Amino acid sequence: HLFGSGHDPNDTECSKTEQFGGKFLMNTISVFGKYPNNLKFSPCSLRQIGLKMPNHNCLTPRSTGAFCGNGAVEDEEYCDASSKGMEDLDPCCDRYCKLRGNATCSDANHICCKNCVIAPANTPCLHSEPVDCTKPSFCSGRDHSCPKPAYVPEGTPCPGPGHCYSGKCLSFCQALSRNRSVRLQACMCRTNAACKSCCFNTERANVSDWCQVYSNESVLDGTPCYMGFCKTGVCESYEASTFKRFQGFLKQMKTPELETFLKGNLVMLLILISLIVWLPATFYIYRA
């Protein structure tokens, strides 16, 4: 919306069906992110954003020179660890963005700076990130910046479920496409296969069986499925989950506790029963 785009209209150009890539980013109802179009702007959005592009002044930075106190080391600054109201509190950097005493860096500006000096070699500076497919990174002992982390071996499992290739976590379908001469995209199977790893061949998008199971292994718990989320390989709907929680609540309550609960919420129960009885009756009376 900040770029000037409204919600997509419900037409064939800007509101595609799942068979043709799914809804776009600015769909009226939020999307799961399972289909190719879910993370793209529709042609309608791009046209609306394009109309706002001439107003580029709103994206022009006001400051063109160094500003001591913004937390970023800029031209002619040795450090910048202060902010308004926090001047002179950093042990390494003063209010004028100069290093204090024997300090060679500021911990606030550099990961590989410890106690105002360059951190020892092999000091951890970045943890491994499964989503980014990277290994842990360690300080060199020669510089205050953290070295760029190395990639994990090709094919290493990553969240999704997916596999790492060239530092990118590819989804199951994307990784499968690397070993085949087809281009596969993730899709959401229906019925009993809703929590399986499903893909569709983008070159055969017009066939009736476009979304197929490519692995019988169930997706991770919590993965969205139709009107619910996957749990132990089964798609549980929102309504079913709510009913099960309420059913479990009643089962856990013993008879004396249930009586106490009912007595303490008697008014609420009477109102609820009245609504259940009178709303259908009122509708019937007015129709008659």
Please give a structural write-up.
It contains five helices and 13 strands. The strands form five sheets. It has a three-stranded antiparallel sheet with strand order 5-6-7. It is α+β, with helices and mostly antiparallel strands and 288 residues long.
Q: What's this entry about, in short?
A:
With 288 residues, the protein is an alpha+beta fold. It has helices at 43-52, 172-178, 238-252, 255-264, 266-287, and strands spanning 113-114, 117-118, 124-126, 137-138, 157-158, 162-165, 168-171, 184-187, 196-201, 212-218, 224-225, 228-231, 234-237.
Keywords:
288 residues; three-stranded antiparallel β-sheet; alpha+beta; single chain; 5 helices
Q: What are the low-pLDDT stretches, counting only 5+ consecutive residues below 50?
A: none
Spatially, the strands of the biggest sheet line up as 5-6-7
Which sequence of SSEs, written as H and E, runs from N to C? HEEEEEEEHEEEEEEHHH
Mean pLDDT, nearest integer? 79
- Beta content comes to 15-25%
Percentage of residues in helical conformation:
10-25%
- Using the alpha-carbon principal axes, give the shape: extended
Biggest sheet descriptor: 3 strands, antiparallel
Structural class: alpha+beta
Annotation, overall tally of beta strands: 13
Terminal Cα span: 47 Å
Please give the count of helices: 5
Question: How is the topology of this model organized?
Answer:
Elements: H1 43-52, E1 113-114, E2 117-118, E3 124-126, E4 137-138, E5 157-158, E6 162-165, E7 168-171, H2 172-178, E8 184-187, E9 196-201, E10 212-218, E11 224-225, E12 228-231, E13 234-237, H3 238-252, H4 255-264, H5 266-287
Antiparallel strand pairs: 1-2, 3-4, 5-6, 6-7, 8-9, 9-10, 11-12, 12-13
